[in-house]
Amino acid sequence: MSLKQQIDGDIKKAMLAKNKEELEALRSIKSMILLAETEKGGSGDVSSEVENKILTKAAKQRKESSDIFTQQGRQDLADKENFQLEIITRYLPKQLSNEEIEATVKEIIAEVGAKGPQDMGKVMGTATKKLSGQADGKIISELVKKLLTP
User: Fold this and answer.
1) Non-local CB neighbours of 139 within 8 Å, separated by 6+ positions
2) Of 9, 50, 87, 147, which has the fewest beta carbons less than 10 angstroms from its beta carbon?
3) CB count, 10 Å around CB of 64?
4) For position 18, what pLDDT does the model report?
């Protein structure tokens, strides 16, 4: 079942349960997917890789918004963003732990034969492709930097 079909089913469940907050979050996810499908030059279908990118971007936006609202003392709005983030993370692939990411990065470093910080670009290119949707780019970058610095 595609993500869009899964979200449609969950929207129906949320409607029947009269869960307005969840319904709002699900509709926002669906609208992002529909926008990607109807994008100029698009084929009308969205691959699971693109769906993961859309969800990752949405999750990142919700997290940043929540942090800003918390800093400004607007806990009501932060709670709303956190709830939407919870809904979005249901559909994201399982995030890897730091240990799993570090093990994968070490494999990639050995694979590309990286020797020091000057090879960070080679390692990052491969790592971001391999760990796409499973780890935050910021964490990957920090680990690569740490492992390549003598």
Assistant:
1) 98, 101
2) 9
3) 11
4) 92
The stretch 120-130 carries a mean pLDDT of 83
Angle at 104 between CA 103 and CA 105, to 5 degrees: 90
- Mean pLDDT of all residues belonging to the chain: 85
The residue with tokens 């029947």 is 16
HEC per residue, 54-90: HHHHHHHHHHHHHHHHHHCCCHHHHHHHHHHHHHHHH
Distance in angstroms (rounded) separating the CA atoms of residues 26 and 19 = 11
pLDDT higher than 70, residue 85: yes
Model pLDDT, residue 67: 93
